[in-house]
Each structure stands twice: as C-alpha cells, then as structure tokens.
Design brief:
The structure is a single chain. The chain is α+β, with helices and mostly antiparallel strands. It has one domain. Helix content is 51%, strand content 13%. It is built from 6 helices and 4 strands; from the N terminus they run ααααααββββ. The protein has a 4-stranded antiparallel sheet with strand order 1-2-3-4. A hairpin with a 2-residue loop joins β3 and β4. The chain is globular and about 40 Å long. The N and C termini lie far apart (32 Å).
Length: 142
C-alpha cells in the first residue's frame, strides 16, 4: 500500500514538472523581456545538472520548494524520478531553449509548449527564482 501511495505522489510530481494548464498570450512589456531572459538563462544550467546526474541537486534547486516539502524532500522524490522521466525532462528543457514561453505576468508563470514537446513545461517565479511547476493552482499560497 505504501508503494502505491508513493507512486501516486510521484505521478503528481511528474505531472507537476511537465504539464501546465495555464496558458496566456505573450506580452511584449519590459517585464516580459526580463522574465524571458531570466528563464532562458536557467535552462542550460538545468540541462547541465541533469546531464551530470545531479538529480537530487536538480530537484532541490529547480522544483518548487513547496512541492519538494509536500513530497517529503528531494530524496523521496528521487525514488520515482527514473531514467525515462529524466530523459523526457531533459529533452523538453532542450526544446524549450528554442522557443519563447507564454507568459502570465500576473501569476508570474511561464509556459513552454511546442509541436514536438512531449509535454508543456511550466515555471513560476517565487521570490527571485524560477521553479518548475505543473499548475500553480495545485499549491496553495500563490
């Protein structure tokens, strides 16, 4: 039963990392330009961490800390972050480097999605950092 519970939690994490239900039109404001630059600058370090196999560091650094806490820490999350899921995330991050995200400036959410994407990839700015999310409405306190 505990394994089933853990799998369900990880499925939520997996969805959290890859899916986004929040889409809005792109903005051309100064805020948009700053946000896009900040996110774009984070993509390569994310890719590097995954390619170097630093999965726990990746989860602690780039996944919404509220989710990491809810899931019992990065070590707990790592148990289900298998090679297939890591590969899909790596592919999606590389694809995200090639396109501009849709920006929701009110919620500070950036969503990357493209024709060849496995899944949409969404980030939310929390404080001064951008974190991987699924749907900002899934975690209270936004």
């Amino acid at each position: 039963m505990n394994k089933l519970k853990l799998m369900k939690k990880f499925n939520k994490l997996f969805l959290f990392l890859f899916l986004s239900l929040v889409f809005s039109s792109c903005s051309t404001s100064k805020e948009y330009a700053i946000d896009w630059t900040e996110i774009r600058n984070e993509l390569q370090p994310m890719i590097n961490m995954l390619e170097m196999g630093l999965y726990t560091d990746f989860l602690n650094t780039y996944v919404d800390p509220r989710l990491v806490h809810l899931q019992g820490g990065a070590s707990s999350m790592l148990a289900d972050f298998d090679a297939t899921k890591r590969s899909e995330l790596l592919t999606t991050l590389k694809q995200a480097k090639e396109i501009q995200p849709f920006i929701d400036t009110e919620k500070k959410i950036a969503t990357f999605d493209g024709e060849n994407f496995i899944r949409p990839l969404a980030f939310q700015k929390i404080g001064d950092r951008w974190y991987l999310i699924n749907n900002a409405n899934q975690i209270e306190g936004n």
